[in-house]
Amino acid sequence: MALDLDKRAITYLSGVGPKKAEVLQKEASIVSYEDLLYYFPYKYMDRSRFYHVSEITSNMPYIQLKGKILSFEQLGEGRTKRLIGKFSDGSGTIDLVWFKGLNFVLSKLKINEEYIVFGKPSEFGRAYNMVHPDVDPIKEAEQIASGLTPFYNTTEKMKRAFLNSRAIQNLQYTLLCNLNWQIPETLPAYLVDKIHLMPLPDAIRNIHFPSDITSLRNAQLRLKFDELFFIQLKMLRSANQRSKLLQGIVFTKVGDYFNTFYKEYLPFDLTNAQKRVVREIRSDMKSGKQMNRLLQGDVGSGKTLVGLLSMLLALDNHCQACMMAPTEILAAQHYSTIKAFLKDMDVEVALLTGSTKKRDRDKILPRIANGEIQIVIGTHALIEDTVIFSSLGLAIIDEQHRFGVAQRSKLWKKNPQIVPHMLVMTATPIPRTLAMTLYGDLDVSVIDELPPGRKPIKTIHLYDNNKSELFVFLRNEIRKGRQVYVVYPLIEGSEKLDYKSLEDGFEIFQEAFSEYKVCMVHGKMKTSEKDSAMQQFVSGEAQILLATTVIEVGVNVPNASVMVIESAERFGLSQLHQLRGRVGRGAEQSYCILVSSYKLSAETRKRLGIMVDSNNGFEIAEADLRLRGQGDLEGTRQSGEGLDLKIANLASDGQILQFARDIAAEVLDCDPDLLSESNRILNERLKILYENKLNWGLIS
Ligand code: ADP
Ligand code: MG
Known about the structure:
This protein has 24 helices and 22 strands. By secondary structure, the chain is an alpha/beta fold. It has a 7-stranded mixed β-sheet. Strands 12-13-11-14-15-10-16 form a 7-stranded parallel β-sheet, sandwiched between helices. Strand 3 and strand 4 form a beta hairpin. The radius of gyration is 31 Å and the shape is globular. Adenosine-5'-diphosphate binds next to helix 12.
């Protein structure tokens, strides 16, 4: 049944003129019939019970009444002009009030006919009224709302164009009637049978017009499955295709570089988790397929070292390797770490960033091109066209969430003969469900163990009216020889104020700690100024470093054991955890002090509480997902790969997701390119979901 619902424009629906169509598109991205059908309610209300007017009390939720309008009366002028309908159900009367669309109401509603009225009663003087209620003739109401009433998200602009929740419901009704309540299946019959879920036409009907709570749940389940299934199908299929298309460089041997370093120069034992991950990487690299691996590990878990060992494997197989970091500070730090690790070995390492001087660059580039330089550490300067490798075998990206897919693929192209192996490292633990959805095409390794001997960081929550207590504590730590970070938020849109509070803070700290050196870094400083301030702190000359979140990623100062986070309520959980990871690297007891105002929302209080209670990045990421929802997670937004899920919820639908992924994998096992007759429908659906959308965008 080829209805092409995705190609039928919403303007063809009766009741949708050009004006409404425009609002629907702009405000709700509804362009086609399909878009409308997939515009799902965000909640439902139970209309299974009728109330009596005499039962009405204050603070009632939405209720419904059955009765007649006895009379209409128009009152007021201009902005106070309103229409009042006296409504009675025999037990009492209540005023129905309209401020807008008076003529429309008067032409539609008749005196002394039976209606069902649905709305929220509010107290007005000594009586109750209902403003802009839904009023339905008793016959229709039974059809439309048999118990559960859907509520659709609408914006102010939609409401002004008479597209409130109720109007959307009416459009759904009109559309479904036009379609004879027949929506084409998205899954082949054999799958619908196999998964035992509600058929799609029933699911669409029940999501908009649930016949009862069980049918609603089943409809939701089916639609969540669909949503997640097609994402997984797409991811797994492209991963399959890639691994078929792309040969990987085969790294056959573990040679002198790796072995010498491992046996002679590695200053400590690898943790078991590090060992496991190195084995996983090693087996990818010799498989003949291109490695695409995501390495997740909490801050301080030792990812850099795993990266280095992988690079040495590349060198052993006569290839070059590179590591790309999101900031210059971090790239420089990796460079010096790696140089130090390799100081007694004969390996050529170079640093290439945006601020590498032209003179140096002119020397480095040819040596990368002729293969003399074996390891290149850098920022996105690495992906510029002028950087040509002679044989890039492994590209590592650190701190994934700052880079997008585009940059990943640019690195791929740095070896024109054969795609290099890719290792993406992230310290923002991503909950499993999110990883499966965002990076479902990558294999995932996890370092879930910290190197031994680390003392867990103590986290304390203080209110900002308690500065003197804070200062006493900090002075104590500094006297013991420790250093202190103080971080201020920098939030888009309020930068001016943020810089001001950073600068104010700088004065306060300088005054309070006049016997010590306090320095400051932020994004508006020149690179040279930033570097010299950082250097003062790294060298130990300065005891206190005030900063905006530029220090968030990577900086490693083992002697810094206190992290103070100002206005902690303004940071997300993942970011707080990242910042906290800057301390706790040395042998001393470390502290993270969250300073917030006293007035906090319940959610924020919970968030800070989680930080105080947990040191585990994965736990925190899960909590973040639960608290804030998937759309707003750190890392998804930054990489521009935000998820737009209409119904599934990654925080609570993990099981459905796993099920969907398993089914997708089974389907592809039998039919990798979805070419069989029975799977053609899947192929078509993928096209609708992931190709046509773009075309709509181009047309409009
Ligand atoms: P990440 O990048 O995962 O945040 P790093 O690679 O910067 O962590 O490692 C943090 C610190 O731990 C570094 O000083 C590193 O040398 C050290 N380290 C790494 N692995 C081990 C290990 N197995 N045992 C002891 N120390 C380690
Ligand atoms: Mg790191």
